[in-house]
Write a structure and sequence with these properties.
By secondary structure, the protein is of the alpha+beta class. Bound molecules: 2-oxoadipic acid (OOG) and nickel (II) ion.
């Protein structure tokens, strides 16, 4: 549906597929390891995230049911108000290794915070427009009510084949684009002046998908490729710099398209008049290792001082990415160091010692000269090694999200990598805000650190179990 709605998104998918293919065939030709684990490779071609923006808690509740039915749960609290946007968000995504491997689709879901609209008149206008709309057709509401009735909170009901067949087209429709606004040009302009996001959230009859994002193995190549193909790309790639061992999330996008919309206008023939709206865009991401709390603190402190230094005069002769790379020299780009210093999460697995250690993966040193611990000895004796691989970051970065938002809202100031976006990570009062948001949406939000930690723990346990078996 989105590809039909925004044909440029189709071009982006082609570009990303080409780049991923090049990266993989190059590593095969050079006989080096793929830059992605085999399990992850299978999911790569279908991997996407998308984003929607919602007006009220009641609307959010309906969408939450749809996502829960599809096996997704809210994970991570993103307080975009810290970045000057009138919204807070979470992402619905699958949890657990098996589900992520089958399809890691995530939806970044933002909720408008009316109390962050400073002027009372616009706030009331937004509120009254939202009160009048219903994003969910009755047939879908009834279906959801029936399916969820009697289901314990937080549990996922099972769908019969017949209900599933009815559910899918009804649910898809909720996310469709509507070029007819629900308001007059005047009301649209009023809200847009307060913030273009508010106009986008309030003035249409549904929470249209505003972007879909494929995952690439080489985001720098896609950035160059977009420009080469005449796609209007965002100036900078958000997030950490290019590294041998990627961390977190790097993102770029093509800028939002100007689209024809039709405002209510009683004086016009047919009751509508032509206008324009810019909101929908295409985005590309590349994902690296999930960082621990300690790792994220280090990331954030480097990023904050980098942003600070970018506000002062920058040398004209070096590019943004070069300066960013230089700033990140104090973040070890070495899996062994990242593991020893507890900066990233890893999964562990047991292997025969006779396969050559794979590039890009660490292996615990188990040579005979190494420490004479019983474990090391036993491993050496059985010619076994324990390997570790970084766990992929499945979540989002609020600071980057703010960068994506601002380069896609037409009236925002021109994009500047040095914009003073402060860090919302571990901000003051973050826990209280998260609780208030959970109450607003009536759902508990999962903590992604806990999820990564659990995945790491399970892999350790698995190795321990197998070692126990092999040494018996
Ligand atoms: C969502 C922006 C956040 C990302 O990738 O960080 C996002 C939006 O524009 O509604 O999708
Ligand atoms: Ni996105």
């Amino acid at each position: 549906m989105y590809r039909n709605e925004v044909p440029l998104y189709g071009d982006l998918i082609t570009l990303v597929t080409d780049v991923n293919h090049d990266v993989l065939s190059e590593s095969a030709a050079l006989d080096i390891d793929k830059p992605i684990a085999d399990g992850d490779l299978m999911r790569l071609t279908l991997e996407r995230h998308g984003a929607i923006r919602v007006g009220t808690a009641a609307e959010f509740a309906v969408l939450a049911k749809i996502f829960v039915l599809l096996g997704m749960s809210p994970v991570g609290f993103y307080d975009l108000s810290e970045c000057g946007l009138p919204i807070q968000a979470t992402a619905f995504r699958p949890i657990g290794e098996g589900a992520l491997q089958r399809n890691p689709f995530r939806v970044f879901t933002s909720l408008l915070q009316l109390d962050l609209i400073p002027d009372a008149q616009s706030r009331q206008l937004a509120q009254s427009i939202l009160q009048k709309r219903d994003i969910c057709p009755d047939a879908l509401k009834q279906l959801l009510d029936r399916i969820f009735s009697g289901v314990q909170e937080g549990k996922r009901p099972l769908l019969s084949e017949q209900d599933a067949a009815a559910f899918i087209p009804l649910a898809i429709d909720v996310f469709r684009w509507h070029s007819n606004t629900t308001v007059s040009r005047q009301d649209y302009d009023t809200l847009r002046k307060v913030h273009p996001l508010i106009a986008d959230i309030c003035c249409f009859s549904g929470p249209h998908i505003n972007h879909l994002t494929p995952r690439t193995l080489d985001i720098d190549a896609v950035q160059i490729g977009m420009n080469a193909r005449g796609i209007d790309a965002k100036e900078i790639i958000e997030g950490p710099p290019r590294r041998v061992n990627s961390i977190l999330l790097r993102q770029t996008s093509f800028k939002a398209l100007e689209e024809a919309v039709y405002f209510l206008d009683q004086s016009a023939v047919g009751g509508r008049t032509l206008g324009h709206h810019t909101a929908r865009f295409g985005e590309i991401e590349s994902r690296g290792a999930a960082l621990t709390r300690k790792g994220l603190r280090l990331y954030q402190s480097i990023m904050n001082s980098f942003i600070h230094s970018e506000q002062e005069a920058t040398e004209a002769d070096s590019t943004y990415q070069d300066r960013l790379e230089a700033a990140f020299r104090s973040f070890p780009d070495d899996l062994a160091a990242m593991r020893e210093q507890g900066l990233a999460y890893f999964t562990y697995s047991l292997h025969r010692d006779d396969t050559p250690a794979e590039r890009g993966k660490g292996s615990a040193s188990l040579s005979r000269r190494s420490s004479a611990s019983a474990l090391d000895q036993a491993l050496a004796q059985h010619r076994l090694v324990i390997r570790y691989e970084p766990i992929t970051y499945e979540d989002f970065l609020p600071q980057s999200a703010a960068g994506i938002f601002s380069s896609n809202l037409a009236s925002s100031p021109k994009e500047s990598p040095a914009s003073n976006r402060s860090s919302p990570v571990a901000g003051e009062g973050e826990d209280d805000k998260k609780k208030a948001f959970e109450e607003q949406i009536g759902l508990k939000i999962g903590d992604y650190f806990d999820l990564y930690e659990e995945a790491q723990r399970q892999s350790v346990e698995h190795v321990a179990d197998r070692l126990h078996l092999s040494f018996e």
